TrEMBL record:
InterPro entries attached to this UniProt entry: NSF_attach, TPR-like_helical_dom_sf
GO molecular function, one term: soluble NSF attachment protein activity
Name of this protein: Vesicular-fusion protein S17
GO biological process: intracellular protein transport; SNARE complex disassembly
Organism: Coemansia biformis
Length: 286
């Protein structure tokens, strides 16, 4: 059942928005305030879709008043209301907010909301392609504002999703580029070995064991410390196993690495794809 007070506020807001008189027109400012109050009442009643819809109406009033900043804030609030049960509406509201923010040059703020769009597409809408595009755009806007760390964070998401979609060339390029840029940065240097590992796994998934082996040598030149890492030895072992089509050795290498450095779902998925390729190669030989 709808919240009675919220409905009363909504009705009053509608009257303000549509009022016509001899000496005055619609009172959009008062209507916007009433729509916002109605939204808050709906939120108290845990009627989040209705709250979001009221916030959208508040945004419309602000736009009629030419107050794009207020409209953007209302749209962001609407997206928060929609986020739990209605992710598509949340994305639509955020997309409108981003459009208003970019129009006035607020690209860093727009990038943050574009990143939220990407998360909704990835986690709630299960649309990795749209999520990847949203992360890419957020990265470009962050980069334009010299927010390199934030831009790289979004690009890493692009790379991860690209690999899931089997666009290994794109994923490899991003992982390697960010790793190369982090070699001499004390804040990111510790992550470089993981980015090199992910890039190498992408190369092996292409499949391209020759390219992976050559890439390892380049990684060692870029970061001499990489040669002594568990990640480097792991990939070297996998390359050898793949060249011999040795399924048991491959499985043993993966299990041994996982005991010390637990593999996440992303790496596990790629390793399973690589393992499948070894099986297929063995079948071809027979």
């Amino acid at each position: 059942m709808s919240d009675k007070k919220a409905l009363e506020l909504l009705h009053s807001a509608d009257k303000m928005a549509q009022s016509r008189g001899w000496f005055s027109g619609p009172k959009y400012d008062e209507a916007a305030d009433l729509y916002e109050q109605a939204a808050n009442q709906f939120r108290l009643a845990r009627q989040m879709r209705e709250a979001g819809e009221a916030m959208l109406k508040a945004a419309q009033m602000s736009l009629k008043l030419g107050e794009s900043n207020d409209a953007a804030q209302h749209l962001v609030s609407a997206s928060k209301c929609f986020k739990k049960g209605h992710p598509k509406q949340a994305v639509d509201a955020l997309t409108q907010a981003v459009g208003l923010l970019t129009e006035r040059g607020a690209f860093r703020m727009a990038a943050a909301h574009q990143k939220d769009i990407a998360k909704l597409c990835e986690l709630d809408l299960s649309d990795p392609e749209q999520a990847m595009q949203a992360y890419q755009l957020a990265a470009e806007w962050y980069a334009g504002e010299d927010a390199t760390a934030l831009a790289n964070g979004c690009l890493l998401q692009v790379a991860s999703l690209a690999a899931q979609l089997e666009d290994y060339a794109r994923a490899t390029q991003i992982f390697e580029s960010i790793a190369e840029g982090g070699v001499d940065d004390q804040l990111t240097k510790w992550s470089v070995k993981d980015y090199f590992l992910k890039a190498a796994l992408c190369r092996l998934a292409i499949p391209d064991d020759v390219g992976a082996a050559q890439a390892l040598e380049r990684y060692k030149d870029l970061d001499p410390a990489f040669a002594s890492t568990r990640e480097c030895r792991f990939v070297e072992g996998l390359v050898a196993d793949i060249r011999k089509s040795d399924m048991q050795a491959f499985t043993d290498h993966v299990a041994s690495y996982d005991q010390i450095s637990q593999l996440d779902n992303w790496k596990t998925t790629l390793l399973l794809r690589i393992k499948r390729q070894i099986l297929e190669a063995g079948e071809d030989l027979t």
